[in-house]
Automatic annotation (TrEMBL):
GO terms for molecular function: dynein intermediate chain binding. Residues 290-482 form the Dynein axonemal assembly factor 5 HEAT-repeat domain. This is TOG domain-containing protein. Residues 124-281 form the Dynein axonemal assembly factor 5 TPR repeats domain. It comes from the Eukaryota. GO terms for cellular component: cytoplasm. GO terms for biological process: cilium movement; inner dynein arm assembly; outer dynein arm assembly. SUPFAM superfamilies: ARM repeat.
């Protein structure tokens, strides 16, 4: 601290003579003294430290304040300038205000003008504008406005000096001061030098984000006033128009109404001032456009022309701001774009490329409000730009970049388009949308926007969608096939219904009847090379699931594809998915594959050429999964009751042989389903099976009673019941006694099973088997009864067989 005081004292000693000279009568001496003080303080190198500067100022303040009243204007100006510099740079300017303000009041606040020089009075006002005390700022702003209005002829040349001090306060923490500063700037620039508009508009743009409506309203009023009354306003239309149009979409209705009213007046005045340019349009007034956005009041011709003439300057910056990193900036910019397009109308065509590019980027925004506003703007493009113009740009853009942003904008433009104008371009649009590079994707966002495009086309074109009906069908099925998103699938389903209604078709089935066959044909022979990731395979699956009864009308094509996809040498994943699809269809065969009562003609082919070859054992888990899928498919086929005994007979022998093999599979599910298939086969074939063949089967069935799974063992008991139903009524028990003995002995072993439910199942089997030769069974039971842990099941069987014999003798 001591060092600071020493430095300050040294400086003061150096300028002490200059201070003494301020008391001299000679004006030149006083002037030179002030210039030397300025040089030794403001111009000092190195500059003072803050604490040194404060001490120097405290010593110089009073002599300098006396200079405010110097009879020489130049001396007063120098004194004020030095004090102003000190106030701007010292760390504690408030310590000096008690000395400064009385002098200012003396010079400015009297009825009689004490300060005769307008320039000096102006400089004093400039000094008070940056004062930290809010009330001083308010009064200074009011003073500046009054000066500007009262003496504009003198004010013009010096107005620029007020801009910087005012802008320093435009972000003040008090909203009233911010609003007052905006209003003051309005007056200062209106009555002063207009070129300051360039310096101020960016600050005004920031104030449109102000949280206080009063500030935003002040900006709106000032900008509107400038557009109406600023002498050089034509040079700044491109800066001011966006500000006023932004206020039209303000959150406060009062500000919106004010901005809309001012904008209307601006248009009227612009039209009046350019009467010669508008003469032709006024003499030959065109009728309002028939295709115009609903619930929108059309701007007057002056507004429309004004925006058109400056759109090329406004749009590039706006397209940058709409992708700004600040969310609020993006929202404001998106709203402004909509208002701008409302005024631009058909002139939008000139800017279609920059609009599509900018809107496509903005549509990717994470902020929902930005996307909503961009969507509204895209619709306006559809209203105001003819399809022959936007199609060229939009389709070219989409070919280069298949982003969902581009599709989003296309959907919006389509919604705003006129049906009669859009009709000639439907083929080009639908061809691009259905091209593999656009629609063969798993991105949910892209698929969603593809459906949005379809929805827009249906909404606009209605029955005229018939000309591209096949492409719309292909696109919807493709989207359904390539998405796992439930919302997207529901949307696609609804669109099918909407198109059905729009085209006057009776029902969804009729829509599928028209388009399923062409879509199948479009695959050509590509299905030969399908893999698990082929989009066409997914489309095929979805098509058959959705087509319902139409599937039964196209069995030739469908079965051919299944045969190709289910060849044993095919990719296992493809076979698994194909078997799953085939099983799903067979579970509801009456409404799908067999809707025309023709599936039985193809069912045998499916069993022989599709299912059974895939049941052949191969090593590996994947092969095991395929075998499970194959027998599951066979089970679904038999459950559908499509195959009668006559149809099944040619393949019965091969089927039973293969099922006997798969009954011994390592996979539990495969073994279980094989037992079910064999049971249903026995039920279907009945007595048609050869007796010798039946005798060859029971050893394999008995082996399954030793399976590790109780579920399979129970299933085998039901298989045995069906098995014994296949024996003919005139069964030669004498000839086949050895087989019966082996059967009875094998079954009796499991009558003593640890599991009671198995015992119950085997008991029922033995009751049925005993009907072939009751005496032989009784004999076998008596032979093993003593070996059983609990003879109760043997006793129950003996009682049953005795009852059978008694009934037979009667």
């Amino acid at each position: 601290m001591a060092g600071v005081e020493e430095n300050s004292s040294a400086v003061l000693q150096g300028i002490a003579r200059h201070v003494n000279c301020l008391k001299e009568d000679n004006r030149n001496t006083r002037k030179r003294a002030l210039e030397d003080i300025k040089k030794d303080t403001q111009g000092r190198n190195p500059a003072f430290e803050a604490s040194e500067l404060q001490l120097v100022f405290s010593e110089l303040l009073k002599p300098l304040l006396k200079g405010f009243s110097d009879p020489v204007e130049k001396c007063r100006e120098l004194s004020i300038g030095i004090v102003q510099w000190f106030l701007e740079n010292v760390p504690c300017p408030e310590e000096s205000l008690s000395y400064v303000f009385p002098i200012l009041v003396q010079r400015l606040g009297q009825q009689e003008i004490v300060e005769s020089s307008e320039e000096i009075r102006f400089k004093l006002v400039e000094l008070t504008l940056v004062d930290p005390y809010p009330e001083v700022k308010k009064e200074s702003c009011k003073c500046a406005s009054e000066i500007a209005k009262t003496v504009p002829q003198y004010f013009y040349s010096t107005s620029e000096h007020l801009i910087k001090p005012l802008l320093l306060s435009i972000t003040h923490q008090h909203s009233k001061i911010r609003a007052l500063v905006v209003e003051t700037l309005g007056d200062v620039i209106r009555y002063g030098h207009n070129k300051s508009v360039d310096q101020v508009t960016s600050h005004f743009a920031q104030r449109l984000f102000d949280q206080v409506p009063m500030v935003r309203k002040a900006v709106t009023q000032v900008v509107g006033m400038w557009l109406l009354d600023l002498p050089d306003r034509y040079s700044f239309h491109h800066l001011l128009v966006p500000l006023l149009l932004t206020s039209i979409t303000d959150d406060q209705p009062e500000i919106c109404e004010l901005a809309d009213s001012l904008w209307h007046d601006v248009g009227i005045k612009y039209e009046q001032e350019n009467e010669d340019d508008f003469k032709d349009k006024q003499d030959f007034v065109a009728p309002p456009p028939s295709h115009y956005p609903p619930h929108v009041e059309r701007p007057n011709i002056g507004c429309r022309v004004l925006v058109n003439r400056h759109a090329s300057k406004i749009l590039p910056g706006l397209m940058r701001d709409i992708c700004d990193w600040v969310v609020e900036t993006r929202i404001k910019s998106a709203k402004l774009l909509y208002t701008l397009l409302i005024n631009l109308e058909e002139y939008t065509t000139q800017h279609i490329e920059i609009l599509i590019s900018g809107m496509s980027k903005a549509s990717l925004d994470e902020e929902k409000r930005v996307v909503e506003e961009v969507n509204k703007s895209a619709e306006l493009v559809g209203y105001f730009v003819r399809p022959d113009m936007w199609c060229k740009v939009m389709l070219k853009t989409l070919r280069m970049n298949q982003s969902y942003g581009n599709l989003f904008i296309m959907a919006g433009i389509l919604r705003g388009s006129l049906a009669s104008e859009l009709l000639p371009y439907l083929e080009d649009i639908s061809t691009l949308l259905t091209s593999p590079e656009v629609c063969h994707t798993a991105q949910v966002e892209v698929l969603t926007q593809l459906l949005a495009c379809v929805e827009a086309l249906v909404k606009v074109m209605q029955s005229e969608t018939a000309v591209i009906s096949q492409k719309l069908f292909d696109l919807i099925i493709t989207v359904m096939a390539l998405t796992n998103d439930g919302t997207v699938r529901d949307k696609a389903t609804k669109l099918i219904q909407d198109i059905t209604v729009a085209q006057g078709l009776g029902c969804k089935d009729e829509f599928f009847r028209q388009h399923t066959h062409p879509l199948l044909q479009s695959f050509g022979d590509s299905y030969i090379a399908w893999t698990n990731h082929s989009p066409e395979r997914h489309i095929f699956n979805t098509l058959l699931i959705e087509a319902g009864p139409v599937v039964g009308e196209l069995l030739e094509e469908i079965v051919a594809i299944f045969k190709s996809c289910l060849k044993p040498e095919k990719d296992p994943e493809v076979r698994l998915k194909s078997f799953a699809l085939l099983s799903q269809l067979m579970m509801n065969a009456a409404d799908t594959l067999n809707s025309q009562q023709r599936f039985e003609e193809f069912a045998v082919v499916i069993v022989k050429d599709v299912v059974l070859p895939n049941c052949v054992w191969q090593a590996g888990r994947t092969a095991a999964a395929v075998r499970t899928a194959a027998v599951s498919c066979l089970w679904a086929l038999l459950q559908s009751s499509v195959l009668t005994s006559d149809k099944l007979e040619p393949v019965a022998e091969e089927l039973i042989t293969q099922m006997i093999t798969t009954m011994d599979d390592d996979n539990k599910s495969t073994r279980l389903i094989s037992c079910r298939v064999l049971t249903r086969t026995f039920d279907t074939m009945g007595n048609a099976l050869d007796q010798d063949r039946l005798h060859n089967l029971y050893p394999e069935l008995l082996k399954r009673l030793d399976d590790s799974s109780d579920e399979i063992r129970m299933m085998v008991t039901r298989t045995f019941l069906a098995y014994f139903d296949c024996f003919q009524n005139k069964y030669d028990v004498g000839l086949y006694r050895a087989h019966l003995e082996a059967l009875y002995k094998g079954l009796l072993v499991h009558l003593d099973d640890p599991e009671e439910k198995i015992q119950e199942g085997v008991l029922e089997v033995l009751k049925k088997a005993g009907q072939l030769h009751p005496n032989l069974l009784l004999q076998e039971v008596e032979n093993v009864k003593h070996k059983h842990r609990d003879p109760k099941f043997c006793n129950r069987l003996i009682q049953h067989m005795q009852a059978v014999l008694a009934a037979g003798s009667n």
